[in-house]
Design brief:
9-stranded mixed β-sheet, 8-stranded parallel β-sheet, globular
Length: 424
């Protein structure tokens, strides 16, 4: 039977045991009240650890990491600061791998914290803003504690959460975590202009969040019948739907419906999503599934990178001793876009970092290979687009040098000489 509680009365010592592993929803689906209570009561429970995929709430501070051992698949949002002070353990994995790892107990889940909508007439809750690996956590957990927030939209998920599956329902009324749009710079706008040229009428889009994706979407108001199938979406989708640009009419699967696993944006996006049958919230096992993606023609995928080497290897995770990215769903979508009939797979990044002192087109990566050069299709900077698929290594170096910042091209040409001479 489900116990009910208000946040001020919640006693987590009734549900948690020393050594428990906790998983909670990420991004705008963070159950902030539950996490705040956990931090306050953690010492009374004993040693605890948690898996947090991303965090934008401001709740996970360095002080919080002193009480709870934290791990993640990347260092996005507030997790970047924890990584910098070595208070975050990184599990290299793709978004689509998290749920299977939970099911196999490779990522422990004794307790699941979820933020959900109020129930429908049948007593079922929607997972609201996050539906990627949340269901796997709920299925595996010994204890499910739900933050029932009356400000969370009821979205069309591929499954609902019955009240009978909840051990403790905590009644909350607070705005969900919002992720505001980033300011768009001249560099962002130049990259977006390059990206928009690859998006034609009927294209199906996968984009992330941030200044470049936002700027790109604003350039698509003259397109027709665009579709969306993406691991996450932001506020930019709302503009294109309201303008009649995104209709999903030409999609061979999920026609008429934008598909995603995470809504990461502001109240405008949340209001748009509430009981909207044109938006489908799916598990990562669907949004990132190779068999599903293979059915999408004209799939255009746009992802970011920390740096790209002269042969096309992509690092989206780490620069030197600083970890501030993650694998996310990049590899799944890079592969799918490059193989989609009429589709493209694009990696977009500014040509420089550190105020122009460092080239992000580089002879050698300073971190791991996130996406292999054999999977890469197009690399875009503000200086142009380098189409690499089907090109030999020598030709790749030439094309990538042309989209590097002019200040670094001469040095890159020297670095590329050996590859160009021997062919590899």
């Amino acid at each position: 039977m489900t116990a009910t509680s208000h946040a001020t009365d919640l006693d987590l010592t009734r549900y948690l045991r020393p050594g428990d592993h906790i998983i909670w929803g990420q991004a705008c689906g963070e159950p902030s009240t539950l996490i705040e209570t956990l931090i306050a009561q953690a010492e009374a429970v004993g040693e605890l650890s948690a898996f947090a995929a991303t965090s934008f709430s401001g709740v996970l501070t360095i002080a919080a990491a002193d009480r709870i051992g934290l791990s993640s698949m990347g260092a996005m949002g507030a997790l970047r600061a924890l990584s910098k002070v070595q208070r975050l353990k990184i599990i290299p994995c793709h978004v689509g791998q998290v749920a299977p790892m939970i099911e196999q107990r490779l990522i422990g889940c004794d307790v699941a914290f979820v933020q959900v909508s109020p129930p429908d007439a049948n007593g079922n809750h929607s997972y609201g803003l996050i539906n990627d690996f949340t269901q796997a956590a709920v299925a595996k957990a010994r204890v499910v504690i739900a933050e029932v927030n009356d400000q969370v939209p009821f979205t069309h998920c591929d499954a609902l959460l019955p009240a009978s599956k909840i051990d403790c329902a905590v009644q909350v009324s607070r705005p969900p975590v919002e992720v505001q749009a980033a300011p768009v710079t001249e560099t962002d706008q130049a990259i977006a202009t390059m990206l928009a040229a690859y998006i034609e009428d009927g294209s199906v889009l996968q984009v992330g969040i941030g200044a470049v994706p936002d700027a790109t979407l604003r350039l698509l108001t003259d397109r027709r019948d665009l579709g969306v199938h993406s691991g996450m979406i932001g506020d930019g989708l709302v503009d294109l739907v309201e303008a009649g640009v995104v209709t999903n009419a030409r999609k061979s699967v999920d026609a008429g419906v934008s598909i995603t696993g995470a809504l990461i944006g502001t109240r405008r996006l949340f209001a748009f999503a509430d009981r909207n049958p044109q938006l489908g919230m799916r598990r990562a096992g669907y949004t990132h599934d190779a068999a599903v993606l293979a059915q999408l023609d004209q799939l255009v995928t746009i992802n970011s990178a920390v740096e790209v080497d002269l042969t096309g290897q992509v690092n989206a995770e780490q620069s030197g001793d600083r970890y501030f990215g993650g694998t996310g769903g990049q590899v799944d979508y890079v592969r799918a876009g490059a193989r989609s009939p009429g589709g493209r797979s694009i990696i977009a990044l500014p040509a420089t970092a550190k105020g122009g002192r460092l080239s992000r087109i580089t002879a050698r990566l300073s971190g791991p290979v996130t996406t292999a050069r054999s999977e890469v299709d197009v690399i875009v900077t503000e200086f142009g687009a380098a189409e690499l698929k089907g090109q030999n290594l020598a030709e790749r170096t030439r094309r990538l040098i042309t989209i590097a910042h002019p200040d670094f091209r001469e040095a890159l040409e020297r670095d590329a000489h050996v590859i160009q001479r021997r062919g590899y």
